[in-house]
Specification:
Layout lengths: L10 H14 L12 H8 L3 H13 L3 E4 L3 E4 L4 E7 L4 H12 L5 E7 L4 H11 L5 E5 L18 E5 L9 E4 L4 H9 L1 H4 L4 E5 L9 H13 L2 E5 L11 E5 L2 H13 L9 E5 L13 E4 L2 H14 L4 E3 L3 E3 L5
Parallel strand pairs: 3-4, 3-5, 5-6, 6-7, 7-13, 8-9, 8-10, 10-11, 11-12
Antiparallel strand pairs: 1-2, 12-14
């Protein structure tokens, strides 16, 4: 079938990816001979040099080889993996790097982000069906399971992070934003009791699970803490004696800057507790205390699913990274 290459990447890479996808989908099986360089050049309307370089790329990946008289043939079947995440953050970088480190060269991972855009998510899923051997997906919503995911063979799909929706029949690695959040606050109760009020920053329209607010309120009322939930985080005024619980990295910056403008020091004049640890939290203002899962562990376990077809039904534990901000 004739294929017209676009301008997004080099023709060599596009041709190599097209052939590798054909190998992945069993159009060419292990041991099969590939069409000759001349035949490939005519089929895809590219130069012989482009085909030669594409074959060299595939040979370096260990997917094809060549012998005198036999030409080029398939050695190993490439496996294509879709890793669809919500948005880029430093802890997603940790997840990605731990994931790909476990995979051999005959795995090709396409990393995409849907940015919590349902239309973009649906487009990506619709266009990816049948193209991948495994799908590692962060859904766009914590409460609602996308109907597009039901069109994927459940043995090939691993759901990450969110997951309050019905996940029966699917593998998943999720965070618990409810009971685990409540239990972490209970563990932090002594440190929190040094402050007069707990303030949760929860920007209007945030994709952080809404149910977390219920468990925050439950903790505060059961333990006798004065509390507030702030949606307008851009016009925040940091008050002395308050602990601020953030769900977004930008809010950490906002709280610290606002605190400084009022001559308040983080960990002294006010407290700060962040969701999802990132490396910079170790050094910002002598350390920011964080609630987090082990994103490296999530990446390693996702790789197990890909490599060994391992069924996973797991909520990763929420950890407290104690630092000087409380």
């Amino acid at each position: 079938m004739k294929k017209t290459f676009g301008q997004q990447t080099t023709k060599v890479k596009q041709l190599a990816d097209t052939i590798s996808q054909a190998i992945s989908m069993n159009e060419f099986k292990a041991g099969d001979s590939l069409p000759s360089i001349n035949q490939m050049a005519a089929r895809y309307e590219v130069s012989r040099d482009t085909v030669f370089k594409a074959f060299a790329d595939l040979r370096e990946r260990g997917l094809i080889d060549s012998t005198p008289g036999k030409g080029y043939y398939v050695t190993n079947k490439l496996k294509n993996v879709l890793l669809l995440l919500d948005e880029y953050t430093p802890f997603k970088d940790v997840l990605y790097n731990s994931f790909i480190r476990q995979l051999s060269l005959n795995y090709k991972v396409d990393l995409l982000f849907h940015q919590y855009n349902e239309r973009l998510f649906n487009t990506i899923m619709r266009e990816s069906i049948g193209r991948y051997n495994k799908y590692i997906v962060m859904n766009f919503d914590n409460e609602r399971f996308s109907r597009h995911l039901t069109k994927i063979d459940s043995s090939k799909l691993l759901l990450l992070d969110f997951g309050k929706f019905d996940k029966e029949g699917y593998s998943y690695l999720c965070q618990d934003f409810d009971e685990a959040f409540y239990n972490a606050l209970m563990e932090l109760k002594e440190s929190l009791s040094k402050y007069t009020k707990l303030v949760m920053l929860f920007r209007k329209g945030s994709k952080h699970p809404q149910s977390s607010k219920q468990f925050f309120i439950k903790f505060c009322e059961e333990q006798g803490f004065e509390w507030n939930i702030v949606e307008d985080t851009e016009n925040l005024t940091v008050e002395k004696g308050c602990v601020y619980i953030t769900t977004r990295q930008q809010e950490v910056v906002t709280v610290i800057k606002q605190g400084r403008s009022g001559k308040l020091k983080c960990g002294k004049g006010f407290g700060l507790l962040a969701y999802n640890d990132i490396p910079s939290y170790e050094v910002i203002d002598e350390g920011i205390t964080a609630l987090t899962i082990d994103w490296s562990l999530m990446g390693n376990k996702a790789a197990e699913f890909v490599l060994h077809n391992k069924t996973l039904h797991e909520y990763l534990p929420t950890e407290i990274r104690w630092r000087n901000s409380l």
